[in-house]
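#struct-pred
JK: can someone run the complex with magnesium ion? inputs below
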Amino acid sequence: MAEDKKINHVEEKARKWLKERGVEVKDIANLVYFLQEKYHKNLKMEDCIANVEKVLSKREVQNAIITGIQLDILAEKGMLEEPLQSIIATDESLYGVDEILAFSIVNVYGSIGFTNYGYIDKQKPGILAYLNDKSTGKCNTFLDDIVGAIAAAASSRLAHAAANVE
Ligand code: MG
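RT: done, structure tokens with the ligand placed:
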């Protein structure tokens, strides 16, 4: 019982923080659509949303979300110690821990997720362009990778489900 409450609390926080940082479920679903439309004729937006919801319901995904967003928020407030403060605040390209954390999300649905993640990280469509816009004054060093990873994992899930139907 107590364990259930704790789990709900983590999911609530993860979803609340995504929203507060400017990311809606439909923004991530748009990325899934972008990744999958060429492989599934008649792909529906509601299927993309449903798969994002499934990914968001996983505890390991929620853990990655609250950890990454927490670090972004603290960096934005200048509350981390050096050298980590500067590394995260400036999104230093050699840091790489943001991507490692995102891999824990991509991993949930197997290896095809990595291809999707790499592709979307290069293209930066939709919400990813917004999250990478440094002129907003926001620190999204972790969040951009997390959002790309959720989209990649949801795409893998959708592809697996479609393969099972065929
Ligand atoms: Mg990053």
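RT: quick notes.
The domain at 2-165 is CATH 1.10.3760.10 (YutG-like).
The chain has a mean pLDDT of 93.
JK: thanks, will look after standup
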